[in-house]
Write a structure and sequence with these properties.
alpha+beta; binds zinc ion
Length: 88
């Protein structure tokens, strides 16, 4: 099971774990997003459908951790939007 998601650092809306399948890369892009303002956390790539792991494989875990960490991060980092490649 993953950690509880903290509310959005921008608007305090509810955050959810989400994934987009990218056909070009043939990978799942996993991230946490705010349901209210749509802001996204750091994106992690997975070779498998996260549904199959009930959203608890390591990319999901990392996305949750990154989101929760950002809830407390300094303002200089608030516009940080980037695809993380380091785990591949
Ligand atoms: Zn928000």
């Amino acid at each position: 099971m993953f950690e509880r998601l903290l509310p959005c650092p921008f608007c305090e809306g509810d955050a959810v774990l989400a994934a987009d399948f990218n056909g070009r890369y043939r990978k799942w892009f996993i991230f946490v997003k705010c349901e209210k303002c749509g802001s996204r956390g750091k994106t992690f790539m997975s070779y498998s459908d996260p549904e199959r792991f009930r959203w608890s494989n390591s990319p999901c875990d990392n996305a949750v951790k990154a989101w929760n960490k950002r809830a407390y991060i300094d303002p200089d980092d608030l516009n940080y939007h980037m695809i993380n490649n380091e785990d591949d």
